[in-house]
Amino acid sequence: MAEKTIESFQVKRIDILDEKGDVDESLMPSLSDSDIRKIYELLLLARTFDQRSLNLQREGRLGTYPSILGQEASQIGSAFALKKSDWVFPSYRELGVYITLGYPLHMIFQYWGLDEKGLKTPDDLNIFPLCIPVGTQVPHAAGAAMAAKYKKDKIAVITYFGDGGTSTGDFHEGLNMAGVFKLPVVFICQNNHWAISLPREKQSASKTLAQKAYAYGIEGIQVDGNDVFAVYKATGYALNKAKAGEGPTFIECVTYRISDHTTADDASRYRSKEELEMWKAKDPILRLRLFMEKKGLWTMEYQKDVEDKALSMVDEAVKIAESIEHPHPEEMFNYIYEKLTPRQTKELKDF
Amino acid sequence: MPKLNMVQAINLALKEEMSRDSRVVVLGEDVGKDGGVFRITESLYDEFGPERLIDTPLSESGIIGTAIGMAVYGLRPVAEIQFMGFIYSAFDQIFSHAARIRYRSRGRYTCPIVIRTPYGAGVKALELHSESTEAFFCHMPGIKVVVPSTPYHAKGLLISSIRDPDPVIFLEATRLYRLIKEDVPEGEYTIPLGKARIVQEGNDITIISWGSMLHRTLQAVEGYDAEVIDLMTLNPFDEETMLNSVKKTGRVVIVHEAPKTCGFGAELSATIAEEAILYLKSPIIRVTGYDVVIPLPKLEDYYLPSVVRIRKALEEVMKY
User: Fold this and answer.
1) Mean predicted confidence (pLDDT) in B43-62
2) Is 0.90 surpassed by the pTM of this model?
3) Contacts of B69 (CB under 8 A, 6+ apart)
4) Would you please indicate which residues of B are annotated as catalytic (active-site) residues?
5) Are A93 and A120 in contact (CB under 8 A)?
6) Interchain contact B139–A (C-beta under 8 A)
C-alpha cells in the first residue's frame, strides 16, 4: 500500500501592462505601433458605442442592453488575435468582439433595437448569433471545431462566456468534448466578478476559474483581463496551439463589469461603491493610454481625432439603424423552416 | 430484394447516406465500436472509422450541442440519443438553438441535424426507457418530427431526414425494431417528410396513428370499412390527407401511446374540429396512453392502447 500524489497542476497568470502604463518588456507580444494604435482606437470605439447604447436605451430607442464597460480589453485583446476565417461563438455581452472583427455597427444597433435582422452575420465573417441562454454556446464551439478538424481546415474556434457560465452543465459538456477529442477551440472566460447579483466567490469555490480546465485535460491560463497585451498574447498563443493540432486552451480574463448587468438591473442593490471605485481605477483604456503616452504614441490631438472619429462612426450607425424600415409581419414566418409549412401558409393570410 | 427488419433498414440508410455524402457523420453514446445498444450502427465503424462514427462521452446536451456546431459548420450530423427518456437534458439545445438558428441568423446559418432516438413501451424495459413524448417536439416551431412504422418507411424517411435542410427528431419505436421484416430495396429512395400515407382505404371511419400503435390499429380495424392513416411526419403534419379522409368518412378515431392530455392527438382532434366539424357524424375519440407516468413493464400492457380498447372506440363511433 502507498499514498502518493498522482496528479497536480499549476495555473499560469500573465500580467504585462500595469495600471501606470508600464509593461514587462520580456513578455510583451510583438505588436507594431500601428497595431497598438488600432487597438486603442477599437477600445475607444467600443466604449463610445457602449455609452451611446445606454443613452439610446434610456431614450427608449433601444431595448434592454448589456453594457461591456470595463471589459473592453478582454474582448478587443482576444478578438484582435483572430483571423476572419476563425469561428466565433459569442455570448450576449461581446460588443468589443463584434467591433474588432468589423461587424457592421448599424446591425448591432439594429439587433439591440429589437430587430433580429441585426444577427445576420455578413458572409465574410464567421460569427454565430450571440447566445442568450448562458453557457449553451460552449458545445457549439466544440462541434464547429470537430467539423473543422474533420474537414482539415486550418482554423480555430473561439467561444466567449462569463464566470456565471462556468457553473452551467453545457460548460462542462462542451469542455469535456473539447478535451476528449483535442479540438481546436479557445475558451475565453471573462470573469467580470458578477453574474447579475451573484459575486464570483459564490459562483464557484475554485480559487481560479482557469483551474477548472485541468479537470478536462485542458490547459488553463489566467490573465489580467484589463491588460490588453496579456489578453492578446494568451489568445494568440492559444489560437496557434489550436491550429497546430495541439488542442484547446482555457483563458480566464479577470476583469470587472463596471455597469449594471443590463439596463434592467440596478447593481447598487447588491455591491459596494468601494469595490466599484477600486475597479474603475484599473481601467483598461486609461492604462493603454499611459503606455502610449510614454512611447510617444499618444497626444491630446490624437485623442481628439480618435474620439471624433468614433463619435461620427457611432452617429452614422445610429442613423442607418434608425432609418431601417420596420419589419413586415411576414418576416416572422421566414426562416423558421427552409419552406413554409402548409399551416404557416394559412397563418400568413392574417397579414 | 432483401427482407429487413427496422434495425437493418435504418443501418442500411445510414450506410448508404454516409457513402454518398462525406458530410454525414454519426455521433452518440456507444454508436462506434459497439454498434449502438440496439445495433443500429453495427459494422459502420469498421467501414467509416472513428472520425465519422464518433463515440462521445455520456453527455446528451453535449452530443446535441456538438452536433449543432458541426451542422452550422457545414456537416450533416446524425446524433443518437440512446433512449428518448434521456433526451430532456438536451431540450435547451433543441428548443433554444437547433430550432431557431435559421431564424435568428436570417438564413445565414442552418442546422441540418437528425436526432435519432428509440421511443415507446412494450419491450419490458426499465424506467425512463419507454417514453413517448413526441408532443414536446411538435410544440417547437423549427423542428420536424418523424416517426416511421415499418422498415421500408424507416429507410426512406431517414434518408429524407438526413437530406432535409432543417433539424429532424427521428423517433424509432423499440417495439418495432425487430418485430417486422419486409422488402427493403437497396439503393436510394426517399419518402417525403410532411406527407401521411393511407395504409388502407375505407369509407366509414378514419383512424389515424403512427409508429408502433399503427400495427395495433391495423389489427383492430378488421371487419370495419376503415381508412387507416399512418401520419409518419407529426410536425409539420399532413392536414390535407387527414381532412380529405375525415370529410369522406365523417368518423374519427386517433390512436397514440403517449398520455392523452396535450398528446399529439389533441392537435389532430382540434384541427378536425376547426376545419371539418360539419362533416362529422360522431364525436372524435382518442385512444391513448393514460395520464400517468409510464409504468414499469408489469403494468405496461394496461397502459398501452390495446386492440380491445381501439375496437371499443370503433364500435362507439359507429353508433352514430
Assistant:
1) 98
2) yes
3) A89, A139, A140, A141, A142, A143, A144, A145, A146, A147, A157
4) 129
5) no
6) no
Cell of A76: 478587443
Q: Would you call A117 helix, strand, or coil by DSSP?
A: helix
Mean per-residue pLDDT, B32-38: 97
The count of other CB atoms within 10 Å of the CB of residue B219 is 11
Q: Strands B197-200 and B226-230, how do they pair?
A: antiparallel
Question: Of A200, A186, A187, A188, nearest to A257 (Cα)?
Answer: A200
- Domains of chain A as residue ranges with CATH: 12-350 (3.40.50.970)
Residues B257 and B287: beta-carbon distance below 8 Å: no
- Residue B174 CA to residue B194 CA, distance in Å, equals 23
Chain B residues with CB under 8 Å of A169 CB are: 61, 89
* Cα–Cα distance measured from residue B26 to residue A142, given in angstroms and rounded to the nearest whole number: 15
Domains and CATH numbers, chain B: 3-183 (3.40.50.970), 197-318 (3.40.50.920)
3-state helix, strand, coil in chain A (%, to 5): 50, 10, 40
By the 8 A CB rule, do A191 and A226 touch? no
What is the distance in angstroms between the Cα of A83 and the nearest Cα belonging to chain B? 16
Report DSSP state, residue A123.
T
Let me know if B137 is exposed, middle or buried by CB neighbors in 10 A (0-12, 13-18, 19+).
buried
Find out whether B165 and B112 touch, Cβ atoms under 8 Å: yes
* pLDDT single digits (tens) A123-155: 999 999 999 999 999 999 999 999 999 999 999
Sign of CA dihedral A316, A317, A318, A322: positive
Contact between residue B72 and residue B140 where contact means Cβ atoms under 8 Å apart = no
CB distance B255 to B287 below 8 Å: yes
Contacts of A300 (CB under 8 A, 6+ apart): none
Give yes or no for A136 touching B (CB within 8 A): yes
Between chains, do B69 and A180 touch, taking CB under 8 Å as contact? no
List strand residue ranges (DSSP E) for A225-349, in order: 249-254
Partner residue facing B236 (CB), from A132, A146, A341:
A341
For B95-106, what is each residue's pLDDT tens digit?
Answer: 999 999 999 999
B220 Cα distance to chain centroid: 21
Supply the pLDDT for residue A124. Answer: 97
